[in-house]
Amino acid sequence: MLDLQSISKTFNPGTINEKKALNGLSLHLDPGDFVTVIGGNGAGKSTMLNAIAGVWPVDEGRIVLDGKDITALPEHKRASLIGRVFQDPMMGTAPNMQLEENLALALRRGEKRGLRWGVTRDERGSYHEVLKTLGLGLEDRMTAKVGLLSGGQRQAVTLLMASLRKPKLLLLDEHTAALDPATAAKVLELSDKIVAENKLTTLMITHNMTDAIAHGNRLIMMNEGHIILDVRGEEKQHLTKQELVEKFAHLSVTALDSDQVLLSK
Prior knowledge:
By secondary structure, the chain is of the alpha/beta class.
């Protein structure tokens, strides 16, 4: 479903602030893969997601999604292919618009706009049913402004919006980092449910090693712009946090005590 072929990205080349964020990164995802991504600050995790989403062009390499080369495709033209949930609950939605209007925007992502009702009666009924599956009572608040929802409710709505059109790829960019532990657990539970029900190919960045181990069928660890560890299947199921720390210490040239990611509970 996704092929990253030796992609590289350098910021501020030729200056004292030069930073090689991606260094010949290659990654292959099969359809339905749910991959968790961990690594220290500056490892290239968010740069990888931004490159896939088309936020900025890569310097070298190719990005192929479902057999289509999207390397040169601008971000807005990838919108119908890729769903994304950000770390900040305030992103990914239009806060001054109603909940049902946000869902209507998500449903029309990548389509040309026309002179028709923003939300049809049939759509309103379908939104009511799909919101009910979240178990948050939002089906009774469809005309409420999204900006009035809690952070957890907004992330749940953003998850729903990102998956409404069943994208080829779902990107979860530390989408629970700004939430309290109980709310984060609920959003992760919803993430698992939505990914499984829609059979979505998914990349999830997290700084929480326990979550990285507990979710998905595959785990990759990044360091200095490339992948240093890739575990899946039975090996991932039996992986412990301590083993992950030891693997990082063995594989990484970065000092353990300088990497706060490894201290996450």
